[in-house]
Write a structure and sequence with these properties.
Chain lengths: 238, 101
């Protein structure tokens, strides 16, 4: 019997620093909720908006797989390994923080906010060598299908991380549906709605709702309206 | 006022260790000190009763295991937890969960 958990958009934690507005699905920084710490290896799901010309000054990270997915605007990244880059919607960035890395993240645009998801996944090994990568997300060959954007494998589609996790982006037209089968026994999936309304099995989900499902091999996503969503397939034990 | 919760943070990356210590010590109810490796951490635990040992980045698996074993012998009640993230994002939840607060 599948186990599930629902986190509605309005139940998320929030932080408003003026230049930064962030919604936290799981406990993060000043938002501490013992009932909302992680979903398996998925530890952070932040829905961030950074004002034009503003950003995160130099700060450290270690021992975490950090994924950024821009939703609108342009995000600029610089790190202590010498990487400099910008990412826009249609791209994904990954950083394995490992033994330690410093970086900055800024809104490249002076006038409009950059909106992006910042996702942290626990690594399957501590103290790996830090690394950074960014790739363009491939355009699906057929409509109403899933596009893999992350996996544990360097030669697979999307970026790769130090964890048995697979991320897929879905873009469905109203009335269409896709079936999702887990990549690995013991994994669960956290589905986060970017736009529109979907049904995951029988659960209705609206914009920015999150829904975890595990102890099952597969599930179905059906679009009640034109919809976009992210499926994060992660180990429940790690 | 109650004595602050004593926390020892071990990590080999000096700058990140200082960042974590600064963040922890910004909380009035916590007092954190740092150690840059196993020997230093064990020596500090022999001279002071810490409530939490936070395992930062840079230790090998063997070093982490050795620390857990040696320090539990000295302070069986100590909470030994791995730190992830290297900054403010997860730090407070990690400490609160360890303390059950």
């Amino acid at each position: 019997m599948a186990q599930t958990v629902l986190h509605t958009a309005s139940s998320r934690g929030g932080a408003d620093h003026g230049w930064l507005k962030s919604y936290h699905t799981f406990s993060f920084a000043g938002y501490h909720n013992p009932e909302r710490v992680h979903f398996g290896a998925l530890r952070v799901l932040n829905d961030d908006s950074v004002d034009g010309g503003r950003g995160f000054g130099e700060h450290p990270h270690d021992n975490m797989e950090i994924i950024s997915i821009p939703l609108s605007g342009t995000l600029e990244h610089k790190d202590s390994m010498g990487n400099v880059g910008t990412i826009e919607p249609g791209e994904i960035q990954v950083m394995s923080a490992g033994t330690g890395i410093y970086h900055t993240e800024y809104n490249k645009d002076k006038d409009q906010a950059v909106k992006f998801l910042q996702i942290w996944v626990f690594p399957n090994k501590r103290n790996v060598e830090p690394r950074y990568d960014q790739v363009k997300i491939s355009v699906p060959e057929k409509p109403n299908t899933l596009v893999q954007i992350l996996s544990p494998n360097a030669d697979d589609a999307g970026v790769w991380i130090h964890q048995d996790a697979w991320f897929n982006l879905g873009k469905l037209e109203k009335g269409s549906q896709v079936d999702y089968t887990f990549h690995k026994k013991g994994n669960g999936a956290y589905i986060f709605v970017l736009e529109g309304e979907i049904l995951v099995n029988d659960q209705i989900l609206s914009r920015r709702d999150g829904f975890g499902i595990w102890d099952t091999n597969q599930f179905t996503v059906k679009a009640s309206s034109d919809a976009e969503f992210l499926i994060m397939d992660v180990p429940m034990e790690f | 006022m109650e004595n602050p919760t004593e926390i020892l943070v071990v990590g080999t990356h000096a700058d990140i260790l200082q960042t974590v210590l600064r963040l922890l010590n910004a909380q009035a109810s916590w007092h954190a000190e740092g150690a840059s490796g196993c020997e230093e951490a064990i020596a500090q635990c022999k001279s002071k009763a810490y409530r939490i040992l936070l395992l930062g980045a840079g230790l090998t698996d063997l070093e982490e295991e050795r620390l857990k074993t040696e320090i539990k012998k000295i302070h069986p009640e100590i909470h030994i937890i791995p730190h992830y993230g290297g900054g403010s994002g997860l730090l407070y939840t990690e400490i609160h969960l360890a303390l059950g607060t």
